[in-house]
Specification:
The complex is a heterodimer of chains A (294) and B (279). Chain A is 37% helix and 20% strand. Chain A is an alpha/beta fold and 294 residues long. In chain A, the strands form 2 sheets. Chain A has a 6-stranded mixed beta sheet, with helices on both faces. Chain A has a 4-stranded antiparallel beta sheet with strand order 2-1-4-5, covered by helices on one side. In chain A, β1 and β2 form a beta hairpin. In chain A, α5 crosses α7. The longest helix of chain A is centred in the middle third of the chain and has 18 residues. Chain A is globular. Chain B has 279 residues and is mainly α. Chain B has one domain. Chain B has a two-stranded antiparallel sheet. Chain B is globular. Classes of the chains: A alpha/beta (294), B mainly alpha (279). At the A-B interface, α2 and α4 of A face α4, α7 and α8 of B. Bound molecules: adenosine-5'-diphosphate and magnesium ion (MG). Adenosine-5'-diphosphate binds next to β2 and α1 of chain A.
C-alpha cells in the first residue's frame, strides 16, 4: 500500500470559534500503481484528507502511513514525502507562486539541486507532457495565462518533481466538457506511461467511474462506501441521497427502474446498459417503455 | 506553519451575538477611546489591577474563548518580553543607584528599572487587548460606519472623513487577506519541498524570505482587483456632492448610553486610584 489512513480525525481551525471537524475517523488504503477516486459532496473533507496524506496537516488523532511508515514518527522525513508525492490543488492560483512559467516549473528541480542541464530537460519534458510547447511558454508570465493553461502549468510543476504518485484535488471542477476529457485523458496517460499512482477527488462519479480502479465515497469526514466503481455504483440510490452526481448511464438505469425494479445499475458503458435492457425487453414488447426522467 | 490563521486573531470578527457585538459601534468606539486614554495615563499597580478586573469583565461579556484571544496575543507578548529585557538593561534615572542589583558597563539592572518597565509593558498589553477585543467584536463595516459617524463634524474643517475611513478600513481588511496569502504560499512551497518551521534560525528565515516577493506580487494584484471592483460599481467617495446612503442605520439604545457612562466612571476611578495609591 502506498498510503494507509487509520482512523484519522482532523479539526480545522482548532481552538478558535471557527472550529470545524473535517475528518471524523476516516480510514482507507491507497494501493500503488492504481487510480483511486475519492468521491463526496462539497465539505465532505476531501481536500482536508489530501492535505493530511502529505503531512501538511497533522491529524488530531489517528495516523497516516506511507509505505507502511508513520509519516509523523521520527525517522520519517515529511519533506522527502512531499518530493515523492505531488499534489495539484483545485485552483491553480493556490499553487503557482513564481512569475513566469519556466521559473515555476523549475522550482522543484532547483530545490532538489539538480544540475542545470537535467533540470532544463525535466522542465521541457514536463511542459510538453501537459501539452504546452516549451519554447513558447517558458518565458510567459503566469498572470497572462488562461485558467486551463494555469492548471496545466501546475501539473507540469508537479511532474518536474518526478513523483511516484500525484494527488489531484477536483481536477475537473470548472472545466468545460472538452477540457475535462483532455484532463482525464492526461491522468490516464500518466498512469499508463509513467506508472504513477493517482489519487483524485471529485464530487461527481460521472467523471471518474470509467477511469478509476478504486472508488472511495467520503461523507461528513467518514468513508461510507469503497470498492471498484461497479460495486460502488450498485449503491446508486444511496449515492444520490448523498448529493453525488452519477454517470448518465446510471441515471438512465435508475430511471428505468420504475419500469423494471430489478434492473441493475452498476453498468459503466452504453453497451452494458443495452445488454442489461435486452434481458427485460422480450417481456415488454407489448408496450413501448416510457422513459421517465428522474 | 500551515494553519497560521488559527494562531492569529488580529482583524478577525467573531459574530457570536454577545452583548459586546450588539453594542452600537459609535458607543464602542467612544468607550474604547476614553478607556484607552485612561489606560495610557495610569501607571500605578493599583490602577493596573483595576484595569485587569475590567478586562476580565469585558472578556466575560464577549463570550469569546479566553484561549483564542490569548493565542492571538502570544506573538505580541513574546516580542514585548524581548523589549522588556532592553528596557530594564538600559533604564537610567537619578534615584536608581540605591536599588541597583547588577551592573556591567552601561548595563544596569535595578529594582526601579524592573518595576517601571513592568508597569509600562502591562499598560501596553492592556492596550493591545482592548484593541483586539474591539476588532473581535465589531465587524469591519460597523467599525467604518461608527468611525465615520463620529468623525463627521471634522468635515466642516475640510477633512475628507469618508475617504480617510475607507482607506483605514481597506488597510485593516488586508491583514487577514495577507495572512491567508502567506498560508497559501507556504502550502504551495511546502508541496515542492521547502521546509518551514524547521532547522536553525537562518534556515527558517531563508524559507520565509522565499515568500516575501510572491506575497508582494499577489498583494498588488489584490489591490488592482479591488480598485477595479470598486470602479465597476461606480464607487465615488465625494463626487459632485453625492451622498452615500447606508443600508443599515445605526441605532443608539439605552445599553449604549449605559456602556458609555460605565466607561466614563471606570476612567475616573482609574485616574483617581492612580493619584491616591502610593505604588
Ligand atoms: N481553510 C479552512 N479553514 C477552516 N475551515 C475549513 C477550511 N477548509 C475547509 N474547511 C472546513 O472543513 C470541512 C471540510 O472541507 P474540505 O476538506 O474543503 O471539503 P471538500 O474538499 O470535500 O469540499 C468543511 O466543513 C469546511 O468548512
Ligand atoms: Mg475541496
Amino acid at each position: 500500500m502506498l498510503f494507509e489512513v487509520k482512523d484519522v480525525y482532523y479539526t480545522r481551525m482548532r481552538g478558535t470559534p471557527f472550529a470545524v471537524e473535517a475528518l471524523k475517523g476516516c480510514s482507507l488504503a491507497i494501493p500503488e500503481g492504481e487510480i483511486t477516486a475519492i468521491v463526496g459532496p462539497t465539505q465532505a473533507g476531501k481536500s482536508t484528507l489530501l492535505l493530511t496524506l502529505l503531512g501538511l496537516l497533522r491529524p488530531t488523532r489517528g495516523s497516516v502511513l506511507f509505505h507502511g511508515q508513520d509519516i509523523h514518527q521520527a525517522p520519517f522525513n515529511v519533506e522527502d514525502l512531499r518530493l515523492r508525492v505531488g499534489i495539484v490543488f483545485q485552483s491553480p492560483e493556490a499553487q503557482l507562486f513564481e512569475e513566469t512559467v519556466g521559473k515555476d516549473v523549475s522550482f522543484g528541480p532547483r530545490r532538489k539541486r539538480l544540475p542545470p542541464a537535467q533540470s532544463r530537460r525535466l522542465v521541457q519534458e514536463s511542459l510538453e507532457a501537459v501539452g504546452l510547447p516549451y519554447e513558447e511558454f517558458r518565458t510567459r508570465y503566469i498572470s497572462s495565462l488562461s485558467g486551463g493553461q494555469k492548471r496545466r502549468v501546475a501539473i507540469a510543476g508537479v511532474l518536474a518533481l518526478e513523483p511516484e504518485a500525484i494527488l489531484f484535488d477536483e481536477p475537473t471542477a470548472g472545466l468545460d466538457p472538452q477540457g475535462r476529457q483532455e484532463l482525464l485523458a492526461l491522468i490516464q496517460r500518466l498512469k499508463m506511461e509513467r506508472r504513477l499512482t493517482i489519487v483524485l477527488t471529485s464530487s461527481s462519479l460521472a467523471d471518474v467511474a470509467a477511469l478509476a480502479d478504486q472508488v472511495i465515497v467520503l461523507h461528513e469526514g467518514r468513508v461510507v462506501l469503497s470498492g471498484s466503481p461497479r460495486s460502488v455504483l450498485a449503491h446508486a440510490k444511496e449515492l444520490l441521497a448523498l448529493d453525488i452526481t452519477l454517470p448518465e448511464i446510471t441515471q438512465i438505469a435508475l430511471g428505468l427502474r420504475s419500469l423494471w425494479p430489478s434492473l441493475r445499475c452498476d453498468m459503466l458503458t452504453l453497451a452494458e446498459l443495452e445488454e442489461e435492457l435486452l434481458r427485460f425487453l422480450p417481456h415488454a414488447t407489448s408496450q413501448e417503455p416510457q422513459l421517465s426522467s428522474s | 506553519m500551515i494553519e497560521i490563521s488559527r494562531h492569529i486573531s488580529f482583524g478577525q470578527y467573531v459574530d457570536n451575538g454577545s452583548r459586546l457585538t450588539r453594542l452600537d459601534p459609535r458607543a464602542k468606539i467612544l468607550c474604547f477611546v476614553i478607556v484607552v486614554a485612561a489606560v495610557t495615563y495610569i501607571s500605578h499597580f493599583a490602577s493596573l489591577a483595576l484595569c485587569l478586573l475590567f478586562c476580565l469583565f469585558l472578556q466575560w461579556l464577549s463570550r469569546l474563548p479566553l484561549r483564542y484571544v490569548l493565542q492571538g496575543m502570544r506573538m505580541f507578548i513574546s516580542f514585548l518580553l524581548i523589549l522588556f529585557a532592553f528596557q530594564v538593561l538600559f533604564y537610567t534615572s537619578s534615584t536608581q543607584a540605591a536599588s541597583t542589583i547588577w551592573h556591567w558597563g552601561v548595563l544596569t539592572v535595578s529594582w526601579e528599572g524592573i518595576i517601571h518597565s513592568t508597569q509600562v509593558d502591562l499598560r501596553v498589553i492592556f492596550l493591545y487587548y482592548l484593541t483586539s477585543l474591539l476588532m473581535l467584536t465589531t465587524s469591519l463595516v460597523d467599525l467604518a460606519d461608527g468611525a465615520e459617524a463620529l468623525l463627521r463634524p471634522l468635515r466642516r474643517l475640510g477633512l475628507p472623513v469618508h475617504e480617510l475611513v475607507m482607506v483605514f478600513v481597506v488597510a485593516l481588511k488586508f491583514v487577514p487577506l495577507l495572512i491567508t496569502e502567506v498560508e497559501r504560499l507556504s502550502i504551495a512551497q511546502a508541496t515542492r519541498g521547502v521546509r518551514f518551521g524547521r532547522g536553525n534560525p537562518l534556515q527558517r528565515i531563508r524559507a520565509l524570505s522565499g515568500i516575501i516577493v510572491p506575497l508582494f506580487m499577489s498583494g498588488l494584484q489584490r489591490v488592482e482587483m479591488l480598485s477595479t471592483a470598486m470602479e465597476a460599481r461606480c464607487y465615488r467617495a465625494g463626487y459632485r456632492g453625492w451622498r452615500r446612503s447606508k443600508l443599515r442605520a445605526l441605532h443608539w439604545n439605552r445599553s449604549d448610553s449605559l456602556a458609555l457612562v460605565c466607561s466614563a466612571l471606570l476612567c475616573a476611578l482609574l485616574i483617581a486610584l492612580n493619584l491616591v495609591s502610593p505604588f
